[in-house]
Amino acid sequence: MMNTLTLDIADGAPQVRAAKIRLSGMADDRAMLRAAADLTRDLQTPRPLIYWGDFLASAAIGYAALAGAILLPVGWAIASAVLAVLALYRASLFIHEITHMKHSELPGFRVGWNLLLGMPLMLPSFMYEGIHTIHHTRTRYGTVEDPEYLPLALMKPWSLPLFLLVSVLMPVGLLLRFGVLGPLSLLSPKLRRIVVGKYSGLQINPKFERKAPEGEFARQWRWQEIGASIVAVSLIGTTFAGVLPLRALLIFMAVISGVAVLNQVRTLVAHLWENEGEPLTVTAQYLDSVNVPGGFLPYVWAPVGLRYHALHHLLPSLPYHSLGEAHRRLEAALGQGSTYSGAHYPSLRGLVGRLAASTMKQRAQ
User: Which residues fall in a coiled-coil region (predicted)?
Assistant: First the structure.
């Protein structure tokens, strides 16, 4: 698969539209990999105060704003809903950190996150744990066995709006998963296999089917699923009983939908999505991924370190608060024109435009 490189000047900044690389068969850039490992050895330890402070502040602001969206007059309610989406989005993205962290280094964080956010929003961490690590597996990234990869750049134009539409409907799916299918699956082994395999992961690859959990992870899964199901059944039951106003439920679901859509937009530009299913080297995976290191807006739409998504693929265990410093060190050591700089892009708009343009080329094929 051969791609081309062009530069376009937009808003006074060079914008990379494509990169002339061949992902398949690309050799690893040993100098970059060695520098990434050597220059970040002192950045590997997560800082509990940053994790807890960031998460708790984001969750508190998000829940307060959600209450405002439900209780305040229309104008203030809309502003509160927007704030709730942004804050709860940031808080929810700590699920990504939970997937990668050594839990002994942040004791209680997974439990606290699930109790305060994962179960109340029906997004328990088991939906991502055991899924996302496969995406980082050397031989599975970008293949049909990768739960988080689709060659979106090589698909038809209608695939992008459909990709976003799925996220709009996410809260309905979560209510059905945890409020209906989950409890019913306890009565039917066949249904349980389907629920576990197809409806228990935040995955985008429809061909992926996850395996049943084992050992300690199975115990984690069990209590998290029970908690999320209690929330879902309570929401459904109290709404039908007239205890919870339908308006309140719809606003709650709209905020979750907003969080899901924002995350789906970020997912659209997390990679170039140009791999055709072959295993790739770490360097090729890096160049198929995206850093958006400049400007303020990436802090909003790609928070908790995800503006450095390509760097994260080089150093998946690096805490999110260390990625900015790691990026500065690698930039200084490797310089412009290096393989490392080949994954940097200036804006969300340019990346979405590149992806849309690529799908348009598939229309006639």
Answer: none
